[in-house]
Design goal:
The chain is an alpha/beta fold. 31% of the residues lie in helices and 24% in strands. The chain is built from 13 helices and 16 strands. Helix 10 links the parallel strand 10 and strand 11 (270-273). The chain is elongated, with a radius of gyration of 23 Å.
Length: 368
């Protein structure tokens, strides 16, 4: 029985895997623009690579063309996403490709941006450039899931994270750490990969967290801090207040405490007043829309049980990381259980789920 022959060679796939790896490495750090990876090959030798610049510019194709250590004319380009073909804050990448003399272009999938979608194929073909698309398509679809949410829904891509003990506690007075140091490093990696991190004022007042990235060399990529604080109960001596800078901390509230509002603004915090819904809660969807308008494309929620439950009930998490520690925490002091396991299982029923062991902890990643 004959099988359908793959139209892409193993060599072509390997070059594209490198392009996808380059894009994946910069994912979450490119602002409004998708993270793209690009590889230029000539006579079976890689002569240049490129990634989308931090905050979205320059584009990967431009960086790869500029980085080449020999003449590009007659080479092949492998790029993880369809090259742009319209004028925006930069000139079209298709123009740079045509002028460079590249004679073959491979890309995984069409851009979902309607200004671009599917048009580059014809533009490049009309200039006698050999174009192939669809290579490693499934890999690229997974890579650009957050970009799709941003463009189609005009919302940030939301990742939830919570750590629980063996006896299902997320907090026990006197216990500073539930998970081990390897899980903590993964948590800081998630902070590095997201524009902003959200918690409630209750969590802030209990834990006095820093909410920054503490991976060596990546401290400057710490996310913006988002605090949900209905009545502005945030403690003025907290680390978040003391370390606030212009626009790095946003508080959503519904308070009329003008003295505290004035004091917080004076310290450099950005306050947004929002009305409550009929049940006396914030409308989380409205908050996400507001954050999107403020330029936040990837949001990490490290809330307690209540905030996590509300996000799960509203089906607002695109991904969720559940860290399970083998530790058994004490119930003799103040403690809090994780009560959302049932909602988590229901929300992600028949969806993607991946479980793994990281040192002593178990981690389950859910995706919608």
């Amino acid at each position: 029985m004959s099988t359908k022959k793959d139209k892409f060679s193993s060599k072509e796939k390997n070059y594209m895997r490198l392009a996808l790896d380059l894009a994946r490495a910069r994912k979450g750090l490119t602002g409004d623009n998708p993270s793209v990876g690009c590889v230029i090959v000539k006579k079976n030798q890689i002569i240049s690579i490129g990634q989308t610049g931090y905050n979205g510019r320059p584009h990967a194709e431009t960086n790869a063309i500029n980085n080449a250590f020999q003449r590009i004319s007659g080479s092949e380009m492998y790029v993880s996403l369809e090259p742009c073909n319209h004028y925006g804050k930069t000139s079209p990448c298709t123009n740079r490709i045509i002028k460079s003399g590249i004679n073959k272009v491979y890309y995984c999938i069409d851009d979902i941006d309607q200004k671009v979608k599917g048009k580059s194929f014809k533009i490049l073909k009309d200039k006698n450039i050999h174009v192939k698309r669809g290579i490693l398509k499934k890999n690229a679809i997974d890579l650009y899931n957050s970009y799709k949410v941003n463009r189609k829904n005009k919302l940030p891509y939301v990742i939830g994270k919570i750590a629980i003990s063996k006896n299902k506690l997320i907090y026990s007075k006197g216990t500073k750490r539930i998970t081990d140091k390897y899980s903590d490093k993964l948590t800081h990696y998630l902070r590095y990969k997201n524009d902003a991190i959200m918690i409630s004022s209750k969590t802030l007042n209990i834990d006095n967290p820093k909410l920054n990235c503490r991976l060596k060399g990546l401290e400057n990529f710490s996310p913006r801090r988002i605090i949900l604080d209905k009545l502005l109960t945030i403690k003025l001596n907290s680390y978040i207040i003391k370390s606030s800078k212009k626009e790095n901390t946003i508080i959503f509230h519904n308070s009329t405490n003008f003295l505290k509002i004035k004091s917080l603004k004076k310290r450099g915090l950005y306050l947004i007043k929002l009305s409550f819904d009929k049940k006396g809660h914030f409308d989380l969807k409205k908050i996400l829309k507001r954050l999107f308008k403020l330029g936040i494309r990837n949001l990490l929620v490290e809330g307690g049980d209540n905030l996590t439950k509300k996000f799960l009930e509203k089906r607002l998490f695109n991904e969720f990381y559940l860290f399970r520690s083998p530790k058994i925490l004490s119930k003799s002091n103040k403690h809090q259980f994780f009560t959302s396991q049932g909602i988590l299982n229901t929300t992600y029923n028949r969806k993607f789920k991946f479980s793994s062991k990281l040192a002593k902890d178990n981690i389950t990643i859910y995706k919608r």
